[in-house]
Amino acid sequence: MKELMLTNQAVARGAYEAGVRVLSAYPGTPSTEIAESFVKYDGVYAEWAPNEKVALEVAAGASVAGARAMACMKHVGVNVAADPLFTAAYTGVNGGLVIVVADDPGMHSSQNEQDSRFYARSAHVMMLEPSDAQEAKDFTKLAFELSEKYDTPVFIRLTTRVAHSRSLVELGERTDDKLRPYEKSVTKYTMMPASAILRHQVVEERDIELANMVNTLDINRVERSRRGGKIGVVCSGIVYQYVKEALPDASIFKVGTVYPLPIKAIAKFAASVPQLYVIEELEPFIENQLKKAGIKCKGKEIFSLQGELSVLKILEKFNRSVPVPVAAKVPGRPPVMCAGCPHRGVFYVLSKLKLTVNGDIGCYTLGAVPPLSAVDTVLCMGASIGMAHGFKKATKGVSHNVAVIGDSTFIHSGITGLINAVYNESGITLIILDNSTTGMTGHQNHPATGKNLKGDPAPAVLLDDLCRACGVKDVKVVDAYDIKAVEEAVKSGIASKEVSVIIAQRPCVLLDKRPKPVMTVDGCRNCGMCMKLGCPAISRDESGVHIDPNQCTGCGVCAEVCHFGAIKEGVR
């Protein structure tokens, strides 16, 4: 039976058919749907972990116990998981261990264009890269077989265009998921120096074995052109699909194992074509290795190191006929926080007070754009607190800066930063924007929401109690829609010489589907004060301000900032 599947769903299906017992992940676009799909199968365990490091540690523990296990994350999540990753390559596995990483060329929802293939090479971990949903399912099953055969974790690498594309997938049956016997081995699983020295030798020997094996693996294959073209192309992943469409006269070496590369097989292919090109997104990962091996090829002297490739870009580089797209005249629409977003009022206050704001990763990053223009820095998950602490120390405590972080991000990697600030007597003010979900990736639960990945009730971390346990004495909980209360709390916080925490609470407006009264305008003096909120439901012309009832969520924040009482609650 075949089914049309998102590639992320196909990875989950492959894991299910491979007999995976345990999956742990942290939501991050474009990888999120893998865990959300896997948890729907019977007889499996899946969870949202607080962060990617924990997710990989959970999967590694399940692997050592003898179960097939998987950890899933986006590319920047591998940075967080790098500590266990590098050592898991030394320990090897018992049950198969697969790590799925989804890169984001073009930065559709990310802060960088990191290329995870370098992690595979640096950590000495094999990496497979599928080109569509069927391959994703098949490669996932193969990855578990290779993991157990060669005693190694194995990466599956996706990119945004592959992860979020759909194609037909042939469904299979689930294999036996019995535990492999666990045998105690200090030299294999206990990585103190004496053991690690021995296991490093094992890793190097395994690298040689894998480098030879991949030359015969059928997921690395040659596709000869029937049109007699004179060029050969080495490619993988989504780029393979682009090349097939753009260059039908080219012979292709389709790489399935981007690490280790099948160098001998590619060398043989290169010798059979007059000119060899390497077409790959981001860094010249494949190209550099081929050139190091003495294989002449062209690559990044033609294609950019930045952004995504496409059929049109490849056609242009090869001087082929390029179809002229019909350009629709659509006005620009920059991203903004949703109408009724509980973060809007907080950023309005911070902008009004002209504070330096160390921001974090999440939809509240949009507080940086006009008209709020409130956020000054965004670095990585949890960095707002550490940066605010450093900013405060550098200015000897006189700076008026605050840290802003979401509830999910605080759980992910903000707690240790807060402990550091308290321990080192920072005096920072931290604002936790608690919207009761992981908003930007599609409303996933986390340890502070009281629900697990399945949506079942789970113990909830109480953020105010947690902050007090970290040593914070001044913890205030305010309604994010109450502008006056937010402003008073912020002023009190920045006036203190000790660490203070403000928890601005309101569920994400998209979670509450109950109809609410809309806001209406009567007697507007067209002062423009409400326009400073940047709410997409509010517009303005010569006659004054107008509120779109189809977008308004009735949050009432606009009424709070109107000095003339022109905005009132109406009826929907």
UniProtKB/TrEMBL annotation:
Cofactor(s) named in the record: [4Fe-4S] cluster
UniProt entry keywords in alphabetical sequence: 4Fe-4S, Electron transport, Iron, Iron-sulfur, Metal-binding, Oxidoreductase, Transport
Keyword Secreted: no
Xref: SUPFAM superfamilies: 4Fe-4S ferredoxins, Thiamin diphosphate-binding fold (THDP-binding), TK C-terminal domain-like
Cofactor note: Binds 2 [4Fe-4S] clusters. In this family the first cluster has a non-standard and varying [4Fe-4S] binding motif CX(2)CX(2)CX(4-5)CP.
InterPro entries on file: 4Fe4S_Fe-S-bd, HACL1-like, IorA, Pyrv_Fd/Flavodoxin_OxRdtase_N, THDP-binding, TPP_enzyme_TPP-bd, Transketo_C/PFOR_II
Residues in 4Fe-4S ferredoxin-type domain copies: 515-536, 543-572
Binding site for [4Fe-4S] cluster 1: 524, 527, 530, 562
Record field: catalytic activity: indole-3-pyruvate + 2 oxidized [2Fe-2S]-[ferredoxin] + CoA = (indol-3-yl)acetyl-CoA + 2 reduced [2Fe-2S]-[ferredoxin] + CO2 + H(+)
Keyword Transmembrane attributed: no
Pfam families assigned to the protein according to its UniProt record, in alphabetical order: Fer4_6, POR_N, TPP_enzyme_C
Description of how the protein assembles with itself and partners: Heterodimer of the IorA and IorB subunits.
Function: Catalyzes the ferredoxin-dependent oxidative decarboxylation of arylpyruvates.
Protein name: Indolepyruvate oxidoreductase subunit IorA
Organism annotation: Candidatus Protoclostridium stercorigallinarum
